[in-house]
Amino acid sequence: MKRASIKDIARIAGVSVATVSYVLNKKEGSRISDTTRKKIFEVAETINYTPNKIAKSLKMSKSKLLGLILADISNDFYSSIARCIEDEAMKLGYTLLIGSSDETPEKFKKLTELFSEQQVDGMIVAPVVNSDDAINKLIKEEYPIVTIDRYLKNVNIPGVVINNTEISEYICSYLTEKKFEEIIYVGYDTKLPHLLDRQEGFDKRISSAVNYKKVLTGLHNIAEEVYEGLENNLDLSKKTALYFSSNKLGIAGLRYLLKHRIKVPEDVSVIAFDETEAYRLFPTEISFVQQPLMDMAKEAVRLIDSQINNYINDGEKVIFPAQLMAKDSVR
User: Which of 194, 199, 241, 314 is deepest in the core (most CB within 10 A)?
Assistant: First the structure.
């Protein structure tokens, strides 16, 4: 007869393997509710669970593993911040497990389940649209979790973001003062709050004296949709500025300009979000919005470590200021 395992208990009780491990190993300071504890002990008794003493001795201490779920690790922004988080986590003795959700809630959910099975001590995540249920499940299981770069409006957990609204307001004012006849905002047609904050900040400050256009793309066919949007909206007879609200949009836009031999800043001015090596390949130095990656990483690791060790879960949000790095691409 097969020996009952903590995976069996977790499946029957409807909680994570990590939660069962916390309860059965009687770890001090855990935030797991009495109701959940009682249910786990009842299931364990019902299926005659007998702990493996060797495995138990190995799991009495923390795993010193952290899960990091990003939208796309191939994106320069996320690969850079992952490296910063890894460096900071290692200083505290943690090893990082990293996964990309590819902007899909199904893959995001699978990664949370996988990391939970690996018994990570906590997770740092960049939420995707419709990932609320997966995150709420972790919260219900009282799992240490922190958001990075992004947040969800209806989920109150600790997180690290930048001042998306304010920096876009500043960029808009900066461009308006340059007396452009036309400004084109290139962003996303999305429900992600941090990206909507960027768009709303720009909308808030745009002058009625400027011809204002928007090119909004999906998250998956960026290059094609940016090409089409610029083809239909860019009027080189006017003094025009382009604001790309992410590095992926910026790279796609710059490729379009190169392909059509449109000069920057002679024919059009450009500001893009985030620093990326791809900008360095362009003939003109591109003005960009710089995010304080190291500061964000340090704070995310601090927040997750605080939860793991002290079980703090007060929904603390830490907002860092981004800044415009003005180069030669705006005239």
Answer: 241
